[in-house]
Design goal:
Layout: E1 2-6, H1 10-16, H2 18-26, E2 30-35, H3 39-46, E3 50-53, H4 63-80, E4 84-88, H5 90-103, E5 107-112, H6 116-120, H7 124-140, E6 145-148, H8 151-159, E7 168-170, E8 192-196, H9 205-217, E9 223-227, H10 240-249, E10 253-254, H11 261-267, E11 270-273, H12 282-289, E12 294-297, H13 302-305, E13 312-315, H14 320-331, H15 334-351, H16 354-366
Parallel strand pairs: 1-2, 1-4, 2-3, 4-5, 5-6, 6-7, 8-9, 8-11, 9-10, 11-12, 12-13
Helix pairs in contact: 1-3, 2-16, 4-5, 5-7, 9-14, 12-15
Length: about 375
């Protein structure tokens, strides 16, 4: 088969779907990777993949430019003649499904990797876009196979009649390389708490900073670090001047984007993700595979990975006080961290290995 994997960044393809692309290529399929251009496109080519840059605006709402984008995508699909296309992230799912249907692509698979700003935010702008996107979803997903990362997202789409049970599947995330992420002894010195994610308000960054303030005021000695980059294309992005102000206040550190995230987990004592909603947060599964306890919010996605009191602690979303209390409990109890870290490793191996995720995805491709 000729298979196209289409995502909104080359970074996403490289970091989340590389193992899938490699497995497909090993099986003898022709794989074409498509995304806007960036530094990872060249890396994909150097690894022997055919990658095509496809420019589009993640935030674009101009009707004329969006229609042009759709027509360009139709042209690409018509020229490449794929047997199957797999779309990741909202805009790729919507536009890719319309384009594939118009040119007669035999199989279309869509991954709902999270609901994103449109469904999470309660702003007037988000609600207006949600109304429009909901109607697009209902039309775009018709006749396609849809992969969800958590049962709540699947049930939401079924309740909205975006898809049906027959064409819906549940695969927990993009998988974790349990050989790359492995347990190691904690570093000595002051405990380090990290929040590894895109720097968005929706990831609970504000609550993380406030929790750090609370604990510092209580005399709890620990370092708090944000690990990730600013996503300027997302309306929920945290401004650079806010990050600078937090660093000057010395309440949190900002480590920026880290290529070797496994080394970051090795430096950390606790991994935190107080997100408002997730698809299936791979950072939590990676943390577990690395033998680190996690603190996350009791929301869809996070609670699929975190078993409260076993491999981490779940807290109420948007509650800095509850977050601070959970972090404090782990900061002050090394034995609890060790126990939860061991359980996290077992859960990662059992439920989130990359081999299992890739195998389950390819099984969907092979269905008639």
């Amino acid at each position: 088969m000729k298979i196209i994997l289409f995502a909104n960044t080359d970074w996403y393809l490289y970091n989340f779907r590389l193992a899938l692309a490699q497995a497909l290529k090993k099986q003898g399929h022709e794989v074409l990777l498509v995304s806007p251009s960036g530094e990872y496109g060249l890396k994909l080519q150097e690894m022997g993949f055919r990658w095509l840059p496809f420019a589009f605006s993640r935030r674009g709402l101009n009707p004329v430019s969006e229609v042009i984008t759709l027509l360009r995508l139709e042209h690409l699909y018509r020229r490449e003649k794929p047997d199957l296309v797999h779309h990741f992230t909202i805009k790729c799912v919507l536009y890719g499904s319309f384009a594939a249907r118009r040119v007669g692509v035999p199989r279309v698979v869509n991954s709902i990797t999270g609901l994103g700003y449109v469904f999470i935010s309660q702003s007037v702008k988000a609600r207006l876009i949600r109304w429009l996107v909901s109607r697009w979803y209902r039309m775009a997903l018709r006749g396609t196979d849809v992969i969800f990362q958590n049962p709540e997202d699947k049930q939401l789409f079924l309740s909205y009649r975006f898809t049906d049970e027959q064409h819906s599947y549940l695969i927990p995330g993009s998988g974790v390389d349990i050989k790359r992420f492995f347990p190691c002894e904690e570093t000595t010195g002051m405990p380090v708490v990290i929040l590894p994610a895109r720097l968005l308000w929706d990831k609970g960054v504000g609550e993380f900073v406030e929790a750090a303030r609370i604990l510092r005021a209580e005399g709890i000695r620990a370092r708090f670090a944000l690990v990730g980059k600013i996503d300027g294309d997302n309306p929920a992005a945290i401004p650079i001047n806010q990050l600078t102000a937090w660093q000057k206040e010395e309440v949190v550190e900002w480590w920026g984007w880290q290529e070797d995230i496994a080394a970051v987990y090795a430096q950390a004592h606790i991994v935190c993700l107080p997100s408002y909603r997730e698809g299936m947060p791979r950072v939590l599964a990676e943390a577990g595979a690395s033998g680190r306890p996690v603190v996350a919010t009791d929301v869809p996605g996070c609670r699929m990975v975190v078993k409260d009191g076993i491999n981490g602690l779940l807290v109420k979303p948007r509650d800095a006080r509850a977050l601070a209390d959970a972090l404090k409990r782990l900061i002050l109890d090394p034995s609890l961290r060790s126990m939860m870290g061991k359980c996290g490793r077992e859960i990662a191996i059992r439920d989130f290995s990359i081999e299992r995720v890739v195998s389950d995805t390819i099984k969907i491709y092979q269905q008639q």
